[in-house]
Amino acid sequence: MGFVKRLGYLISVIIISIALTAPAAAKDISLREAVDLVQQRYPGKVLKASQTRIKDNTFYRIKVMTKQGRVVTLLVNADTGRIRKE
Fold first, then answer.
1. By CB neighbour count within 10 A (0-12 exposed, 13-18 middle, 19+ buried), where does 65 fall?
2. Could you report the per-residue pLDDT of 22-35, keeping only the tens digit for each?
3. Taking a C-beta distance cutoff of 8 angstroms, is the pair 39, 52 a contact?
4. Which pTM does this prediction carry?
5. d(C-alpha 19, C-alpha 71), whole Å
6. Contact 31, 51 (CB under 8 A)
7. DSSP string covering 8-72, please?
8. Are 81 and 60 in contact (CB under 8 A)?
């Protein structure tokens, strides 16, 4: 096997091994993990938590009563964990 072929093979093996061992960026988080994320940013009592689909994306809708007594409804992206107010 020539040097160029061996180098190409080695690069392919490295790329595949990195892809298999790298943390998955699109790994779905669970409802429990979404609730934990929300409670870290919005301390209070979780009133309701459910899963929903919006434009082919999965979100968790979490309703929280903050320590100040405000009720806030949040959406957590199941792929990224990003939190936004509804």
1. middle
2. 444 456 899 999 99
3. no
4. 0.67
5. 42
6. yes
7. HHHHHHHHHHHHHHSPPTTPPPPHHHHHHHHHHHS-EEEEEEEEEEETTEEEEEEEEEETTS-EE
8. no
- Written as one letter, the residue type at 1 is M
pLDDT in tens, 40-72: 999 999 999 999 999 989 999 999 999 999 999
Is 38 strand, coil or helix? helix
Q: 75's torsion region: left (phi>0), alpha (psi -120 to 50) or beta? A: beta
List of domains in the chain = 26-85 (3.10.450.40)
**DSSP code of 72?**
E
Structure tokens at 13: 């093996």
